[in-house]
Amino acid sequence: MHDSGANFGLPPVAEAPKDEKRRTRRAKIARPLRVRPSEPRDDHFEDFPNSVNVSKHGIYFVTKHSGYYKGMRVFVTFPYTSPHDPMNSEYLAEVVRIEPVASSKFGVAVDLKMSMNMSSRPAGSRRF
Fold first, then answer.
1. Which stretch of 14-23, 44-53, 78-87 has the lowest confidence by average pLDDT?
2. Domain coordinates of the chain in residue numbers?
3. Angstrom distance (rounded) from CA 24 to CA 53
């Protein structure tokens, strides 16, 4: 490879792959999440994996659950601590990639479509 010297001694910049579809950078964050199907036609399950990396628009996790398929709509609670934690954030998401990563484990990438937290009540108001 011929170096024209145009980078003035700086290390070469890696180019993004041409088929890169990510809109934002990923951060390596391992946090628990809860995943469950959103469509009634899919068999109900609750999966509690840890995230491997996250971005503003997606989450990648590794699971032993083999019921995921590309295009599947799921509810994702991230981060997940307990069923009654008011800080839980739930999203409607779509499975965009599934890949085998180890013996009987799968890497799953989901695209976050919209937040399901629609509390529009003012803080301190009561609902009867």
1. 14-23
2. 34-115
3. 12
**The domain 34-115: what is its CATH number?**
2.40.30
Instruction: Spell out the residues 6+ positions from residue 57 whose beta carbon is closer than 8 angstroms to its own.
Output: 23, 24, 111, 112
pTM above 0.90, yes or no: no
Question: Where is pLDDT greater, at 65 or 25?
Answer: 65
Distance from C-alpha of 66 to C-alpha of 124, rounded to nearest angstrom: 43
Which residues in 37-47 are b (16+ Cβ under 10 Å) and which e? beeeeeeeeeb
Dihedrals φ, ψ of 28, to 5°? -75, 100
Q: Is the peptide bond before 100 cis (omega within 30 degrees of 0)?
A: no
- Beta bridge partners, 60, equal 53, 109
Judged against a pLDDT cut of 80, whether residue 118 lies above it is answered with no
Quote the mean pLDDT of the chain.
82
Q: Tokens standing for 50?
A: 């840890």
The 10 Å Cβ neighbour count of residue 23 is 10
How many whole angstroms separate alpha carbon 39 and alpha carbon 112? 16
